[in-house]
Amino acid sequence: MATFQTINAGGMPITVQKDLRVPMRDGVELAADAYQGAGDKPRPALVALSPYGKELQAMALTMPPQRRPSPMWDGCIEAGDIARIVKEDYVHVIGDLRGSGDSGGEHIGNYNAGGVSLGQDAYDFIEWVAAQPWCDGNVGMVGISYFGSMQVLAAAERPPHLKAIFVSGGHYDFYETTYHGGVMWFMPRAAREGRGGDSGWAFTDRVKSRMVEKYSPEELKKLVAERLADPDIAAWPNLVHVLNYPVNHEAWFDIVMNDVDGEWYEERNPITLAPNIDIPVWLQLDQGRGWTLDGTIELFDALKGPKKLDIGPYPPMQSRPFIEEHDKMFRWYDYWIKGIDNGVMDEPAVSVFVEGSREVVTADAWPPKEVEYKPLYLRTRRKLGVEPELMGTEYAAPDGFYQAPLTVTDKVEILSWNTDVFEERVEMIGTGAAHLFVEIDQPDTNFILRLWDAAPNGKRQLITTGYLKASHRELDEERTTEGNPYHPHTRSVPVEPGKVEEYVVRLYPFANTFLPGHKLVAELSNNEPLADEHNALLPPDAFHLPVGRPVTHKVYRDAEHPSRLVLPFTVS
């Protein structure tokens, strides 16, 4: 039963309709709360949808925004600033997706809910909102991360009353959200289960595993045994637990069981659906979360209607409750929903904040400047240079490191190479690649590459990362170009121990100017340090599955093995 109440927020009365029931076409009802200003006049509505629970989102009215690394930061408070939205004369409607919170129905795997597309539910939800007497028939959407992905899924269904969307920090290619370069990322576990700075989904007993639904107990037992044969999985207690006891770990179980790309991840992939979207779309993301930036740019390129791409500065995690980017959002919606000619469409489509110089570069496409891909070669004495090595392996002996599994050591071994200090400003904007000739003594390992801008005073800023599981080294030759490699990740091919292989690691998009006196530092490891100046900005679960076996790595960088970085230098 819906209830009405009036609250005061920031000296402003807000009318709250609690526990509205929103019917879906199959009879399931979703739960929603609506916040609006005083008076009965119809207003445009901004819809927020996720499985994180509408009651959690209401904390935006009572909790000051928290920045990482605040212990009060909660990654799931993502629906936006309720009081600000109401002040701007919009109705803020926050709904629970089916199978979560107070909504009915079942949620089964991925972006599928009880066999129903979440985009289909979003369509019905938006059209119901548009028909309410307190809405003037014009609807936009609001929210980051999961809420952002829901905006794209909704827009692809083309609900008639959805006029525009503003997506900040969305996740798109679901495989790349969960496996970076084939290396498992732990953060999706927190999003479901509520660990490491996330409350997680609003639990119900109606969230089910797609794998459990699809396979018989006998088939599933065999598949689980195969997955546990991976020594990386077998060495990590939580994964052993999840695979043996999938109940209440449904979504995480499905992710762990699907370690290569394919149909399970492609189903309703927002990027695949992008050509269906013809309404105006603003895409925004801050730097430092490269896999998401990659997907954001790919989505931007696939969109056909009016669009904006806005890449902001560090830090990579926004406040919770989410408040950033509201000024831009209201300019967008005031133009497309309220019809206010504020000049937003007279501005360039692409805006990129360049770290280092702290300048904003604008253009009509990504990258915003012409770039020339140039190599920086790994040289002896841990140097990066513009010229390749002339000596053979017998004289330019390989660099190397031995990494014991983290079950027996706390130390993560890191190889590094650096340029000489730059004498002039050097600007790079775009994707990049690392061509590494490496010999390992095991069938698999991880390659984790991180590039830093090191200042003369010892401070440094992470500018981009790259991940590649060695068994996922296969390239998509049709999509791969210089400095812009793609891996299909559709199968795992073990490495022949003792064989030198060329591994091409994709470096996620970035924008940085190295100022005079600064150096570029490249760090290579097969695990990542659990604490450093970058990881302190991320939630505790935002790291990757360590390698569970001892591995010796030899990195060759001689005349026959030109290991190198290929980076996007802008053309002045």
Automatic annotation (TrEMBL):
Keyword line: Hydrolase
NCBIfam families, sorted: CocE_NonD (TIGR00976)
Domain of life: Bacteria
Membrane-crossing residue ranges in chain numbering: none
UniProt key word Hydrolase: yes
Gene source species: Arthrobacter caoxuetaonis
Entry GO MF terms: dipeptidyl-peptidase activity
Pfam families for the chain: Peptidase_S15 (PF02129), PepX_C (PF08530)
InterPro entries reported for this sequence: AB_hydrolase_fold, CocE/Ser_esterase, Galactose-bd-like_sf, Xaa-Pro-like_dom, Xaa-Pro_dipept_C, Xaa-Pro_dipeptidyl-ppase/CocE
Name recorded for this polypeptide: CocE/NonD family hydrolase
Domain Xaa-Pro dipeptidyl-peptidase C-terminal: 330-566
